[in-house]
Amino acid sequence: MTFGFSPSLRLLKSSEFKRVFDKADIKVSDKNILILARENHLEIPRVGLIIAKKNVRTAVSRNRIKRVIRETFRHSQHSLQGLDYVVLARKGLGELDNRQLHSLLDKQWLRARKRSASLRKSDQSSPKKPDRARPPVD
RNA sequence: CAAGAUGGCCGGGCAGUCGCUGGUCGUUUGUUAUCUUUGAUAAUAAGCAGCUGGAGGAAAGUCCGGGCUCCACAGGGCAGGGUGCCAGGUAACGCCUGGGAGGCGAAAGCCUACGGAAAGUGCCGCAGAGAGUAGACCGCCUAAGUCAGUCGUAAGAUUGGCCGGUAAGGGUGAAAGGGUGCGGUAAGAGCGCACCGCGUGACUGGCAACAGUUCAUGGCAGGGUAAACCCCACUCGGAGCAAGACCAAAUAGGAAUUCAUUGGCGUGGUCCGCGCUGAAUUCGGGUAGGUCGCUUGAGGUGUGUGGCGACAUGCAUCCCAGAUGAAUGGCUGUCAGGGCUUCUUUUGAAGCUUUACAGAACCCGGCUUAUAGGCCAUCUUGCGGA
Predict the structure, then answer these.
(1) Is CATH 2.40.30.10 what the domain over A9-114 is classified as, yes or no?
(2) Which pTM was predicted?
(3) In the complex, which nucleotide's C1' lies nearest to the CA atom of residue A47?
(4) In what order do the strands lie in the sheet with A33-39?
(5) For chain B, which bases have at least one atom within 7 A of a protein Cβ?
(6) What is the ipTM score, two decimals?
């Protein structure tokens, strides 16, 4: 089992981001952070980050937050398969130190994983599967 | 040793482990092309492994200056902007170096938006009589002229007033048209003189800004403000790597050719004609996306030479980030710093905590601002010791 973070695990185009924003199946939020997710019909999970300058002032803390998010995603990737995630920073995220960020994110990924499990269960039970008809990329 | 001044440097180290990204070489697989066709070679894409590079002194603010790119451009003027003691350095600058002047400091040293106020215009609150070809509020004076009184035969003397004189003194103000002294006067006044100061012209030194205790000359007219207009000198085209160049899906629309065509629709009374409409191929523009620009440069380091210095130059040597939903990191241990608490006479020990400001985005030269903590050199002053 590898824990790499190659470009195939990232959202790279604005169209891919837009797909998640258009219809997010899962929303996990906290005071400082918001995670949106949608099925991607791939074996792997993918993640994209939106850390607005408005919410985190200095470039140094924006970079730091992105690194920690990628790091936690990298370690949790095998329990997050099959979805595209977009992580948005909210105000106050820049004030947390690395230790707090790690524990916060680990908690959020766990919640996202539980939500996706229950989503699949209900998906299988219902006969209609609207997302399957669509192609992965709009 | 203490206080201070100037210039420069560092801005956590090491190890383990898991990652990201550029380069290189090897290898595997796919695709394409060529040929000497059970394969080989080349190009290209993806994966894997090895080796190797990977944030700053400010990468920041985007305030100046240049390179580079595209656009514009005969030449000159006007308008507008910028700069503003002198000389030098530089690709250039509003930067730097050296010098001058003025100011601050006991000194080392520091600061200065430092051209022109006799080209013109404007403004100068309050106070004050007066604030700009000055001015009479208090004060001082009553010489000249004149009126009245007193004394006197008269000439005249004297007292008070009018008309006035006066910038010495008081007072106002940030500022009141040189200062001190003597002469002078009715009282005064550069009115005259001496010294000081100031202006102008020589002379001397200096490339120059400027200085001079050298000479002559002017009684001194001419307050401030040009980060007010303005004048003078020099200087400035615009936009920026999202510049710009190239490749190029899908969809819609365009052009050409061919086919279908004596088809359909519109125009028209009708035919011809004209326009629209179908299919295929090709073409050019161009969006998503991609490639280049993209890091070898006014380059770094060492050393010699010239220069007070900024800097210039010779030689040797090195290649030192190139991401693009945006890499340069996370965790653990340990060491070195900082802070707090406890113990301890000190030295020190233990525990906890923290590690400044801040992240390249085309590249350089500056400026400005932020910055925990630490180091080095030189200089000044004070104290102590030898």
Answers:
(1) no
(2) 0.76
(3) B325
(4) A26-29, A33-39, A83-89, A46-50
(5) 18-21, 47-48, 55, 59, 288-290, 324-331, 354-355, 358-360
(6) 0.81
Assess contact for A47 and A112: CB atoms under 8 A: no
Amino acid at residue number A104: L
Contact present, A27 and A35 (Cβ < 8 Å): yes
* pLDDT tens sequence across A22-81: 878 888 888 889 999 888 877 788 888 888 888 888 888 898 899 889 888 888 888 887
What CA–CA distances, in Å, run from A110 to A30, A72, A74, A76, A91? Answer: 13, 11, 13, 9, 22
- Distance from CA of residue A32 to its chain's centroid? 14
Which DSSP symbol is given to A19?
Answer: H
SS3 call for A65: helix
- How many other C-beta atoms are found inside a 10 Å radius of the C-beta of residue A133? 7
